[in-house]
Structure formats: structure tokens, C-alpha cells
Amino acid sequence: MDGHEPEDAKQSTADMTTFVQNLLQQMQSRFQGMSEKILTKNILSNIVADEMGSRIDELERSINDLKAEVGPESSPSPLAPSKVVATDESKAEGSA
């Protein structure tokens, strides 16, 4: 052989190069699209988390304000059992 590729081989190489370049461009576009979606979801998640945090803080302030209005003597301890007042009917049912 004289070191020159036949015309068909040159065309085949050029077609393969074009095919690979197009494939790489498509892959890059898809990865870029997925990256943008992921970033958008992360940003939206952060916004939602910040909003929830703000609402929880506001709720805590409201609860503390209500506690301050009611006073400490009327707020039961969360660990203390609640008192159940038995009525005359429930006493009669329990002894029957």
C-alpha cells in the first residue's frame, strides 16, 4: 500500500467522527439539563425549608405569647398525669 487511505475509508472515518461528536453534544445537553433540574430542585427545597423554619419560629413565638398571657399557674406540666374527675354515674358503673 502507498500509505494513503482509500476514499471509502476516509468517508467512513469522517462519518464516525461526526457521529461521535453529535453523540457527545447530545450527552452534554442531557447532563446540563439534568444538572439544571437538580439545582432547581435543591433551590426550591431550600426555599421550602426556610419557609417552614420561619413558620415554626412564628408558631413557637405564638405559643410562648399565649403561655405568657395565661400565666404559669394554669399551664399543666407535660409530664404530670391529667386529673380525671369521676362523675356520680361513672362511680356507679365502676361499682356494679
UniProtKB/TrEMBL annotation:
Any single GO BP term: cellular heat acclimation
Pfam families per UniProt: HSBP1 (PF06825)
One Gene Ontology MF term: transcription corepressor activity
Region of interest (Disordered), ranges: 68-96
Entry similarity comment: Belongs to the HSBP1 family.
Listed GO CC annotations: cytosol; nucleus
Biased composition (Basic and acidic residues): 86-96
Matches recorded under InterPro entries: HS1-bd
Name of the protein: Heat shock factor binding protein
Organism: Acorus calamus (Sweet flag)
Superkingdom, natural source: Eukaryota
